[in-house]
């Protein structure tokens, strides 16, 4: 059963990674991605960021993209955690961990989930910088990354 | 028809509200955007043709020609930036 959480509290990536394969011996591979808050963006010091989301739709979109990953690859488990609220540089924002029998499925599904999350899940970042607060703009390269998974 | 409209992120801040209930006489998401744009000021500016924003109806992303229905929850927001 996939684990999907949206939370304000910090999470422990190591503990989540360990939990995915605890008490089972059928898993041969766990691939993971952790996204972190940086202290620099577009040349400015970033002191903190606030993540806003659309409660209700966010849960629906994340569940949908994990389902889509499970229909494309033979996955044994998925953990997806995304933080909201105020984060400081160095804080983990998002964790995706994917368990499968072999590494290929785990690597691909992990990347797919992140690429779709970036373009589909209703989260927005606002950075607090030395020049004041500003909303982060979406990047065209994220659309390009997500588009790799369609049409094949 | 009556619609519940939600705004997020930059649009929520610029419009000075998160949510409103609206009487709507049109039929599609594009008609709704036109009605909101007609308010002028920040509405005309943020929802101008060529500005990037998304529309979700009942929590699903839709194209602007999507039909709206009575009591739909319509959300308007900037392109997403999570992860």
Give structural notes:
The complex is a heterodimer of chains A (152) and B (83). By secondary structure, chain A is α+β, with helices and mostly antiparallel strands. Chain A contains four helices and nine strands, in the order E-H-E-E-E-H-E-E-E-H-E-E-H. In chain A, helix 3 packs across helix 4. The mean pLDDT of chain A is 95. Chain B has 83 residues and is an alpha+beta fold. The radius of gyration of chain B is 12 Å and the shape is globular. At the A-B interface, strand 4, helix 3 and strand 8 of A face loops of B.
Question: What's the structural blueprint in terms of helices and strands?
Answer:
The complex is a heterodimer of chains A (152) and B (83).
Chain A: E1 3-7, H1 13-21, E2 29-36, E3 40-41, E4 44-53, H2 57-72, E5 75-83, E6 85-87, E7 92-100, H3 103-120, E8 123-129, E9 132-135, H4 140-147
Helix pairs in contact in A: 2-3, 3-4
Chain B: E1 2-7, H1 9-15, E2 19-23, H2 29-37, H3 41-46, E3 54-57, E4 60-62, E5 73-77
Parallel strand pairs in B: 1-5
Antiparallel strand pairs in B: 1-2, 3-4, 3-5
Share of helical residues of chain A: 25-40%
- At the first level of CATH, what is the class of chain B? Alpha Beta
Average pLDDT metric of chain A: 95
CATH superfamily of chain B: Beta-grasp domain
Question: How many helices of chain B?
Answer: 3
